[in-house]
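user: can you give me the structure for this one chain? tokens are fine.
assistant: on it. calling the predictor now.
[tool input]
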Amino acid sequence: MKTVPAVDPRTIDEHVRDGWWGTDTLTDVIRRQRADNPDGVAFVDEHGDRMTWTTYDELSDRVAAALMSLGLDRGDRVVVFLPDTPLVHAAFVGTEKAGLVIMGLGHRAGEAEMIHLVRKSEARAIITPLTHRDESSSALVARLRAAVPSLEHHVVLRGPSSTAAIAVMNSTMALSKPADLRARIDAQRLDPNELFLLNSTSGTTGLPKCVMQFQNRWFYFHKKAAELGALRPDDVFMSVVPAPFGFGLWTGHFTPTILGAPCVIMDHFSARKMVEIIERERVTVLCCVSTQFIMMLNLPELAEHDVSSLRIMFTGGEAIPEARAREFEARTGSMVMNFYGSNETGTLSGTSIDDPTVKRLTTTGRIMPEMQVRLYTPEGERIAGDIGRGVPACKGPATTIGYYDDEAANATLFADDGWMLMGDVVEIDAEGWLSVVGRTSDFIIRGGKNISAPAVEDEVATHPAVSMVAVVPAPDPVFGERVAAFVELHEGASLTLDELREHLIARGISKEWYPEYLFITDALPRASGGKVAKGELKKDAAARVAES
């Protein structure tokens, strides 16, 4: 039986002793919720279909049984490529029960990204819906298999949760639930300190890296979120962040389940639909990125809906405009809460409902004491007292194991003494309040999604008309930033934004990477060292957008 990557025993002992980690996984939690409240609601989809705790436990058992029938080894990777319905959470837990590791793919991923992540994770199976983007998912999987032959098995999970159907494609074997399934699950399932999920993060190389997630870090973060937001079992959550990503994991997959609270999710985001659902389901805790709540505020019909049930809105992933946050609180009567951290580090700081309003809306809260934080200069020198402006490093119960099968990336992520390094510049005051100043890495943050500018440049450069390209952020009042491409063309060539997008669509590139502004230039500006002067281009993009 292969070894599953896991946290080292010394770290486990430390955090268990301090009370931050335990021995439970979500399998244990769901079984208890079922025993205590079998007909209670675990999830509600956008159409109002409800998944009970009993259905959640039984459906995840059926997923586990289907995966166990494939002859996979404990620790093998399974791609879960499902829209954000209750089924994706049942698939996650079923994979955990089978002792297998999830490769979580956002449902908007392009095929090029999918192929890379299937290959990187060495996945042997994939779980999909019956159809994807108006074609059979079997056609998609056939193309993935052609590129990555190690992908052997295809499982389809479809239907509303109450009548969900599971099928192993190209198999004549009838699926059944073995009488000893519970015992088999308990013998094989993952423990809370083992790798249970890989999710992707943007990289400056243009190829996403896979972050190794284990469950105890999310149980820790649940404790902090519940404390800071005074979260309760009678809350009604709504998470509109995709399930495989960090924000979506804690707001959709972990915290509501641990509390025993229902969670409302949407398979396709729409601000209008979100407001309607908040009113219909009497949502009390909304979890979204800044772009989504700004889109909600921009709805002309917002005043026609009763959203007074909201008491908290958790947001993060990008800068929060203070004026819009104040507007949100004024129009909904709720409190805006914020965290700071990354997919790799977990949260370093967070605001509390007891914080002064000005601190809650202008900082990311106080540093969490158990998340040790240091500050360094950009040159790597330790800043005295870890107070002031600098680049943070951290360690503690929220950090991940690192990147999967990527020694070069881990060498950049971890310092020699094991502290995890971050790519941001922050300010920390003497009372521990943390404020984000900016980023040291070359990313565009569009609607909370990190987009690697070099990765987009690599794709734009494949167009035959393009000679040189530089990609920078253009400011946007709703999304925070949009992708702007400055392009030098080959002599005699021409290019429009629509032509560029068609080219990227044909290459299977994720929609988030499509440039939204195309600026043709005779020559890209250069810095003294010969590199493209991106600072000048950012100013140019901002000026052009302001004039348009």
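assistant: here you go. Residues 443-547 form a domain with the GMP Synthetase; Chain A, domain 3 fold (CATH 3.30.300.30). DSSP finds 17 helices and 29 strands in the chain.
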